[in-house]
Amino acid sequence: MRISKPHLRSTSIQCYLCLLLNSHFLTEAGIHIFILGCISASLPKTEANWNDVMNDLNVIKNLIQSIHFDATLYTESDAHPSCKVTAMKCFLLELRVIFQETNNKDIRQTIDNLIFLANNSLPSDVNVTESGCKECEELEEKNVKEFLGSFTHIVQMFINTPSQ
Predict the structure, then answer these.
(1) What is the DSSP string of 80-108?
(2) Stated pTM of the model
(3) Which range is least confidently modeled, 17-21, 60-64, 145-149?
């Protein structure tokens, strides 16, 4: 699935649009547009669907079978549910390693899309540190097949958890 999600909100674009509209329309209507734009920019973002992340992950699994990829990746194999956001951040960082190591255009595009969707699917308070969780570098290094299997498990944890 490609990034064609009109329901995802880009706050910075809305703010720039508000400023642009405000500078050209200094009338009462322009001020109303500016205020409404600022209010909508502060609303919680609409989160993407974890099922879309899972679909892209399955595409990557299928595509990676057709190439030789022998790098080892930091893999969280038994993440506690309270550490799922930290684990997801590590998986997304390691996906960038696959992106850098492959020349396969389809894999690279799918990884870009998956990272975008996953980042937009994470809770809005994603910068909150989960205590007691392992840092990425503390995780065991595993091959790409095991990495993708564990990644699938973490995504399932998000799918099976109600939105907060």
Answers:
(1) -GGGHHHHHHHHHHHHHHHHHH---HHHH
(2) 0.68
(3) 17-21
Q: Is 139 exposed, middle or buried (0-12, 13-18, 19+ CB in 10 A)?
A: buried
More confident residue, 153 or 40: 153
DSSP 35-63: HHHHHHHHSPPPPPPHHHHHHHHHHHHHH
- DSSP-assigned beta bridge partners for residue 75: 140
Do 155 and 50 contact (CB within 8 A), yes or no?
Answer: yes
- Non-local (6+) Cβ contacts of 75 within 8 A are 94, 139, 140, 141, 142, 146, 147, 150
d(CA 85, CA 106): 27
| Residue 26, C-beta contacts closer than 8 angstroms, at least 6 positions apart | none
